[in-house]
Amino acid sequence: MRFLGHPDRVLGLLAAIFALLVIFVWAPLDSGSGLVETVRRRTSIGDAMGPVVAGVIISLGALLTIARPSHPASPVTLKNLAWIAVLFAVFAVSLALMRYTGPVLAVLLTEGEYRPLRNTVPWKYLGFMTGGAVLIAGTGLAAARRVSWTPIIIGLLAAIVIALLYDLPFEDVLLPPNGSV
Amino acid sequence: MFEHILLGIQAVFSTEGGLSFLGISVPMTLMMIFFGFLLGIFVGATPGLAAPMAMAISLPILISVFGFSSEAFLPVLGFLIGIMKGGTVGGAVPAILFNTPGTPDAFMTTLDGYPMAQKGQAKRALKIAHISSVTGDTFSDIVLVVCAPFLAVLVERYLDLPEKTALLLLSLAFIAAVIGRSVGKGLISMGLGVLAAMVATGEDFYPRLSLGQPGLSDGIPIAAAVLGVLIVGEVFKGLEDISREGPSVRPSLALSGARAPGLWADLPRLLPYIGRSAVIGTAIGALPGIGSTLAATLGYTSGQRRHAARKSAEDPAFGEGAPEGIAATEAANSSVSGANLIPVLSLGIPGNAAAVFLILAMESIAGFNPGPTVFRVPQDGINPELVMAFGIFTAMFVANALNWTIGGAFMRVVGVMARIPKQHLLPVVLLLTLTAIYVQETSFAAIWITLGFGALGYAMRRIEMSPLPFVIAFILGGNLEQTARQAFSATGADPFFLFSSPTSIAFIALAVFVVARNSWKRP
C-alpha cells in the first residue's frame, strides 16, 4: 500500500486501467471496423486503430507517472470535489432559470407560447439576464464565501451589458435560450 | 510569387465590405485589426485575463457574425492577430505599475519594472517595456515571413506521407515532453486529446466511440472542448484559489517622483539586451509547446549574466530596478508571438494557446488549410491559400505598426485595468465564454459539454497536468490519423511505414529521445 501512497501513482494506476479498457474493450466493441481492414484485396487502417493508439499513449504516460512521480505531490482533495459540486449546483440553477424563465412567464402573463415572443423586447432578454445574473452572482458569492451585495449587483449589471453587447450589434445572433425554444 | 504578395496586401487594404467613416471607406480587415489590438492591450493589462482568453471568446462570435466563407478569413484572423499583438505589450503595464503581472510571461518584468516605478520612473519603465516588446515582436515577424515559406517548401519537397506522419508524432511527443512538470502526465494529457479527437470521426458509417449515444454521434464540438479545458477550467481554478486565499488586494499605484532620462538616452545600452532576447524568444517560439514564459525567463537570465559582467558600480543590478531587466524580458516574451506561427503556417501544428485559436479560426473558415501546401506556387494561376497567407503577414505588420505608433500611449491608459478585482472579473468571463459557445452552437447541450470539459481542465490543473497537450492533440488527432491512413495505403499496407525512410526513422528516434531525456531529467 506504501506504493500507492503517492497521488501520482494512484493517477498512473487509474490512467493505466482506463487505457487498458480503451485498448481491449471500448475501441474494439465501439468501432465500425477493426485495427486493419481488407476489402477487395485492399488493406487499410480500420477505425479501431486510432483509439488503440490513443490508449497506448495513455498507458505509456501512466507507466512513466507511476515510475517517476513528481514532487511535491498535487492530489485532488475532497475540498476540490466539494468546490466543483458547488459550482455545478450554481450552474444547474442558473441554466434552468436561463432556459425556463421566458417560457414560464409567457404562459403566466400572456397565456400564449414563448416561441413567437422570443425575438421581441423584453422577452428575448428575460432568460439570459435572470440566469446570467444568477450565474455571475452565484459563482462570485461561492468564491467570496460570504453573502454580500457586490456580486449580486455586478451579476445584474454584467448580464445586462453582455446581453446588449451580443444582441445590439449583431442581428443574427441569438442569446440563450432563444435558439433552443 | 510577387503577384501573391501583392494580392495578399491588397486583400487587407480592400475597402469592399468596409464601413464608411466621415465619408472615407475604411477597410474591414484594418478595422478588425485595430479593434482586436485595443482589446488585446486591455486584456493583457488585466491580471487574470490573457490574449488567448479574449481570442477564445471572440472566435465563436466572429464566426457567427462573419460566417464561414473565405471573405470572412482576413477580418476574423485580423481581429485575432490584433488581440495577440496587443496582449504582448499589455502584460507589462500592471507588472510595472502594480507589481502584478498582467500575463504570466510578464512576471520577470515585475522584478525590475516595479522597483523602477517606486523610484519614480514608471513612465520610463513603460517606455522601455514598449520599445523592447515591439522590437522583439517585429523581429520575430520578419523571421516568420522569411522562414515559414522555406520550411513549408522543404516539407513539401522532401517529406512524403510516412515522414509527415512521423513529424506529427514528433511534434506531439515534443509538446507532451516539454510542457508541465511531468512527462508522464504530458503523455496522458496528449493521449486523452487524441482519444477525444477519435469520437465519431472514423471512416465507417458507425460513429466510433459514441457509446450508442445520439449526443456523441456528431463528435465532440471542438469549440466547446477547447474553450472548456483552456478557459473555463482556468476560471474554476482561479475562483477556488480566491475562495481559499481570500480576495485579491487592490493594488496601489507606484508613486511618481524624480525625473528620469528619456528613452533615446537609454536605447544604445538597451539594444544588445533587446537583440539577444529577441533571438532567444524567436527560437523558443518556433518550437511547438514552449511558451513565452520560458522565453522570458531565458531572456532575463541571459541579460542578467551580461549585465553582471559589464555594469558599473552605481548601476542597479537585475532585480533592483535595472532597465536592462525590463528590456531583456519584454523583448523575449514578445518575440514568441510571430515565431509561433512558423509551425502553424508551414506544418499546421499549433505550438501554444494563441496558435490553437488561430488554427481553429483557419480550419473553421472555408478555403484555408494550414500546412505546407499553403506555400505551393502554381505554374500558372493563383493559389488562394498563398494569397491569404500573405494577407496574414500583412495583418501582422499592420498590428506591429499600430504597436509602434499608438501602443505606447494605450499602455499608459490601461493601467486602471489592474485594479479590477479578479473575484468579480472571472464570473463575468465565465458567462461571456458560455454565451460565445451558445451563439455558435445554439444548444444548451454545448454549454453543458463546455462545463464538463471545464471540470476536466480544472482537474488537470489541480494535479499539475498541462491541458495544452490535450488541446493540441485534440486538434491534430484527425490530421494524424488521416496522414497515417494515407501513408499506410501508399506504402502498400506496410505495417512498418514509419520506419520506411531514414528521415522518418530519425523523426521517430528523436521523439523517443525527447521523451526519454525529459523523463530522465525530471519526473
Tally of individual helices of chain A = 5
State the distance separating the first and last CA atoms of chain A. 54 Å
* Percent strand of chain B: under 5%
> Average pLDDT value of chain B?
86
Q: Rg of chain B to the nearest angstrom?
A: 23 Å
Percentage of β-strand residues of chain A: under 5%
Major sheet attributes of chain A: 2 strands, antiparallel
Q: Which spans of chain B have pLDDT < 50 for at least 5 consecutive residues?
A: none
What are the salient characteristics of this protein?
heterodimer; A: 181 residues; mainly alpha; 64% helix; flat; B: 523 residues; 21 helices; globular
Blueprint of the fold:
The complex is a heterodimer of chains A (181) and B (523).
Chain A: H1 7-29, E1 36-39, E2 42-45, H2 49-67, H3 78-110, H4 123-144, H5 149-167
Antiparallel strand pairs in A: 1-2
Helix pairs in contact in A: 1-2, 3-4, 4-5
Chain B: H1 2-13, E1 19-21, E2 24-26, H2 28-44, H3 51-66, H4 73-90, H5 92-98, H6 107-118, H7 122-158, H8 161-178, H9 183-198, H10 222-245, H11 263-286, H12 292-310, H13 323-334, H14 336-339, H15 341-347, H16 353-364, H17 384-413, H18 422-441, H19 444-462, H20 468-490, H21 502-521
Antiparallel strand pairs in B: 1-2
Helix pairs in contact in B: 1-17, 2-4, 2-17, 3-4, 3-10, 3-16, 3-18, 4-16, 4-17, 5-6, 5-7, 6-7, 6-13, 7-11, 7-13, 7-15, 7-17, 8-9, 8-20, 8-21, 9-20, 10-18, 10-19, 10-20, 11-12, 11-13, 12-13, 18-19
Explain what the structure shows.
The complex is a heterodimer of chains A (about 180) and B (about 525). With about 180 residues, chain A is mainly alpha-helical. Chain A is built from five helices and two strands; from the N terminus they run H-E-E-H-H-H-H. Chain A has helices spanning about 5-30, 50-65, 80-110, 125-145, 150-165; strands at about 35-40, 40-45. In chain A, a hairpin with a 2-residue loop joins strand 1 (about 35-40) and strand 2 (about 40-45). Chain A starts with 6 loop residues before the first helix and ends in a 14-residue tail after the last helix. By secondary structure, chain B is mostly helical. Chain B is about 70% helix and about 0% strand. Chain B has helices at about 1-15, 30-45, 50-65, 75-90, 90-100, 105-120, 120-160, 160-180, 185-200, 220-245, 265-285, 290-310, 325-335, 335-340, 340-345, 355-365, 385-415, 420-440, 445-460, 470-490, 500-520, and strands spanning about 20, 25. Chain B has a two-stranded antiparallel ribbon with strand order 1-2. In chain B, strand 1 (about 20) and strand 2 form a beta hairpin. The model of chain B has no long low-confidence stretch (mean pLDDT about 85). Classes of the chains: A mainly alpha (about 180), B mainly alpha (about 525). Chains A and B meet through helix 1, strand 2, helix 2, helix 3 and helix 4 of A and helix 3, helix 9, helix 10, helix 18 and helix 19 of B.
